[in-house]
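Exercise 7.
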Amino acid sequence: MATWSERDKKVVWHPFTQMREWSRDPQLTIVRGDGPYLIDDQGRRYLDGVSSLWCNVHGHNHPRLNQAVRGQLDQLAHSTFLGLSHPPAIELAENLVRVAPSGLTRVFYSDSGSAAVEIALKMAFQYWQLRGTPRPRFLRMEHAYHGDTLGAVGVGGIELFHRIFGPLIVRSIGVPSPTSAIDSGETPEAAMVRSLAALDSAIASHGHEVGALIMEPLVQGAAGMLMHPPGFLRAVADRCRAADILLIVDEVATGFGRTGAMFACEHEDVRPDILCVAKGLTGGYLPLAATLTTDAIYEAFLGERAEYKAFFHGHTFTANPLACAVALESMAMLEESALDWSRDLARYLERLLREFVAPLPFVGQIRQRGLMIGIELARPDRSPFPAEEFRGAKACDAARKYGVILRPLGDVLVWMPPLTLTRDDADLLAHATIRGIEDSCG
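Solution. The predicted structure, written as tokens, is:
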């Protein structure tokens, strides 16, 4: 009888995967979860070092989250949100408004981070149209990543992901990111000055036609866990406010405890005009996203039906009741204890990184903000490895032999575990990463 892996290779096309390599190499098939661990069809256990692509918050197969889904399943599995409502969506919206930065008072649901961003861009675009002063362009950060739908790609800045789709997208205006390469010698302060000067220039030249600036706050995740200098987010927000440019903050990756706060923009007391959330919203259980905005933006869309000022966007599974119910429980768990535990865990991981990972000769730079961590591989002289050697991918493959699942971003190894990892689990994460680096680079 064919194995799951053999059956997969006959019919499935995986995301961000070169399927020729996939089809010839052995692959894992995960059949069960247990806390921070994933278990394959052979019964082998692996620590989920990247939270199943940055979304698992409390661990897998959690009894409280399981019960939240089961309880809602006995009431209502799904009902359209077009022209109808239901209690879980209403309660979740109330909770999101309560914990979000002040001024965000309206919640528009969708089902993925890309969709949440797409909605934010369309909202901003239509908002200025409704005000009678069209502003069709957007500002974005260099190396930005906001998803893979076409609108999100249009405000993305990772050439590898987006270059082929150039003819399909509306081009945005890029601003240099306030981050520096490991071998550039530029200080964070200098990088911030350089970036803000470029932003000032872009606003001076194009501010009259720019409807919004979109950015990932504090950490640019998909770019390799690039960290912004302290104060940069605040400085960008102040410039947007002064220029009457809407600020869209993409917290799809940074939200729900990843940086030690419910939302990353809390660290600098930034109140965006539009906030995008997804990934950890349901604790990693079900697809759900939300785009939060202000009364000022919401009210611009109000009018009589015949005026056609409504926001014409929606999804079949918008505000799915099962997803909303488990999101409510996940948020309750975050506020009860998981946020506090995540801060303790971040400090413990920082010690492991400093004492055991950083001294390795093939580690060039370590970047950390809370539980968002990038370990950049480099040669002992700190020069990068040739891209075609795929050292990051090889290190992640090697780490699996020691019981940990990781995914690289180029030659950056990512740690982004569930918030509830124990210290023993953290020790395993460090041990497997070290061995993976040694096996692949030594």
